[in-house]
Design goal:
CATH class of the domain at 3-103: Mainly Alpha
Distance between the termini: 118 Å
Shape: rod-shaped
Helix content: over 70%
Order of helices and strands: HHHHHH
CATH architecture of the domain at 3-103: Orthogonal Bundle
Strand content: under 5%
Largest sheet: none
Structural class: mainly alpha
Radius of gyration: 42 Å
CATH topology of the domain at 3-103: Arc Repressor Mutant, subunit A
Number of strands: 0
């Protein structure tokens, strides 16, 4: 080994020593970082003097610490977004199933309405032709059209849609 190699080896050891910080230095740097993430030149000089470090070492430490802080913040944000997405996906799945259920109910109600309209059309046609004088209740008593109008909202799902239903009309009490 020549003199240059010895000198270079010695300098490398000195650089390595400078990079290692004592627990006290680390604690003070961390406390300072918690107070403010950015390092002003005056503060950098003050910290370097107080810790016995070069100002460039303090600056590099702060730069590295900000990078680690940003990485942790991104990981936290990512985890938070994943949790939010999972909750939204679950809510969406529930709403999708509810929507499908409601669509099925609407289809069923439309079918019932169509059947009722067919019955009413047949009844009106019979009245027009004189085959039927008035509607008959299941107990064979007569009732007026006004009484029938009172019952038109007994199917609230249909009333909301603008349809009306007369629950007294059934296939058994209509003369077909």
């Amino acid at each position: 080994m020549d003199e240059e190699d010895v000198c270079e080896s010695y300098m490398m050891r000195e650089i390595t020593k400078k990079r290692k910080l004592t627990p006290i230095q680390l604690r003070l740097l961390e406390e300072s970082f918690e107070e403010e993430k950015r390092l002003e030149p005056d503060r950098k000089l003050w910290l370097a003097e107080k810790l016995g470090l070069q100002p460039s070492q303090v600056a590099v430490w702060f730069q590295n610490r900000r990078a680690r802080y940003k990485t942790k913040q991104l990981e936290h944000d990512c985890d938070s977004l994943k949790a939010s997405y999972a909750k939204l996906k679950t809510d969406w799945d529930i709403l999708f199933v509810q929507n499908q259920t409601l669509k099925s109910k609407v289809d069923l109600l439309k079918e019932k309405l169509k059947m009722q309209e067919n019955l009413e059309t047949q009844s009106i046609e019979r009245k027009r032709l004189g085959e039927e004088g008035s509607s008959v209740k299941s107990d064979n008593t007569q009732y007026s059209e006004e009484e029938g109008l009172e019952n038109q909202y007994s199917f609230p799902e249909l009333a909301v849609l603008g349809f009306y239903y007369d629950p007294t009309l059934t296939a058994s009490n209509l003369r077909l």
